[in-house]
Amino acid sequence: AKGGRTKDEL
Amino acid sequence: MNLFRLAGDMSHLFSIVLILLKIYTSKSCAGLSMKTQELYTLVFVTRYLDLFYSYVSLYNTVMKLIFLASSFGILWYMRYHKQVKQTYDREQDTFRHYILVVPCAVLALIVNNELSVTEVLWTFSIYLEAVAILPQLVLLQRTKNVDNLTGQYIFFLGAYRALYILNWIYRYWTEPKYRQYLVWAAGLVQTGLYADFFYYYLKSWQAGEKLRLP
Q: Could you give the ipTM of this predicted complex?
């Protein structure tokens, strides 16, 4: 994920 | 997915079930802040736009849809249900949306991971979620007579954030690439807002009484 964004949390 | 994350999500889900149950069984939304519910709906809408362009898992998709649908459902009850809407504390629930929305929008434009529409909206939702409980806490302080379900609703919302912090700590140690400072900072602020509430909630619970705020 770009810039450390975690997309797998709600 | 680790147990802290799952427990956090379930706590979040449970808080929403509680609030729907309260509204449905008592046909009353007394003590509930519509401002907070509207802010949460805005949080879910701006964050879950990714339903259109990214897929993580069936679990994530279903949970996102539940959060979206339930937040609109709660708002519908508070605004349009014949009996429920009459129990809304309009005069007490005076917190202005823009006091929270504007600073969060400005901050999201300045501090983000990438200056794109979806990324800024996502960041905005992270900041807004952190403070969206404030109108509810203010209303709680004003009305003071907190019924059990409303107290439990806020308790489980707070527990959800606390469990997410444990999830972040766990992932920090187990996943080398897992670093999301922006989310952590917002999450810490959000959990901190509940500290005062937790203190009085646990004190009332220990004394075997209804929640009483000073």
A: 0.82
Helix (H, G, I), strand (E, B) or coil at B128: helix
Among B134, B143, B125, B132, CA closest to B182: B125
Contact A6 B183 (CB under 8 A): yes
* Single-letter residue type at B168: W
Dist CA B74 CA B167 (whole Å): 28
DSSP state of A10: -
Could you read off the pLDDT of B50-90 as tens digits, one per residue? 999 889 999 999 999 999 999 999 999 999 999 999 999 99
Sign of CA dihedral B159, B160, B162, B163: positive
Residues of chain B with a CB closer than 8 angstroms to some CB in chain A: 5, 9, 12, 50, 54, 56-57, 60, 63-64, 67, 113-114, 119, 122, 164, 167, 178-183
